[in-house]
Specification:
Length: 200
């Protein structure tokens, strides 16, 4: 019987070099794919972190006190508060907020109401009708023509017309910007309602 034995005499150095180059090329392509996937994953993770921080952090800050007013209570105490008034500014490092896209939600122990934006493009002193909110004053506007974009160092005074909030009621006003976390204001109507009341 004939026996076949292995003979590597024909395996020259050139062939070995070709095989080695092929292995190097395959390894280079594989490492490029792995590195590309790693860079892509890192970039997506950074975008996710930045978006999460932007959505989780509120850039709004309340300036001064929150007031409840009862226009009818000029001389004697009233039973209800009609307007909730407060001023908002940007927190340090906060980005400008477009108040045209802002949503304000009022709630108490028994009701929940989304207030209607009744602010003009060029706001002036105005009072919203029942169930609405408006910017009644803009302070520190950087230009002569005020806009609905709250910029650094600006303050917007907001008036919310709830229609009638009973004494001793705990209320919550939630300010929801288009980008960023909602800003919540929780206060209690005093037992004796005057024309102007500081809410705590």
């Amino acid at each position: 019987m004939n026996s076949h034995t292995s003979n590597n005499e024909g395996f020259t150095g050139l062939e070995a070099a070709i095989v080695l180059i092929a292995f190097v090329v395959v390894a280079a392509v594989f490492s490029y794919v792995v590195l590309g996937a790693g860079f892509f994953t890192t970039q997506k993770a950074q975008e996710t972190v930045h978006t999460s921080v932007q959505q989780a952090s509120s850039t709004l800050d309340i300036v001064g006190n929150v007031y409840g007013t009862a226009p009818g209570a000029t001389g004697s105490p009233s039973d209800t508060v009609q307007f909730i008034n407060f001023s908002l500014g940007l927190a340090p490092g906060g980005t400008p907020i477009d108040f045209e896209k802002l949503v304000i939600v009022y709630s108490n122990s028994t009701s929940l109401m989304t207030l209607k934006n009744q602010t003009n493009v060029n706001p002036a002193t105005q009072e919203p009708v029942a169930g609405g909110w408006a910017i009644t004053q803009i302070q520190n506007a950087p230009q002569s023509n005020p806009t609905l974009l709250l910029s650094p160092n600006e303050q917007f005074t907001i008036s919310c017309n709830i229609g009638g909030i009973p004494r001793n009621s705990q209320i919550t006003v939630e300010v929801r910007p288009a980008v960023g976390a909602a800003f919540t204001i929780t206060r209690t109507i005093p037992a004796a309602v005057q024309a102007v009341n500081i809410l705590y």
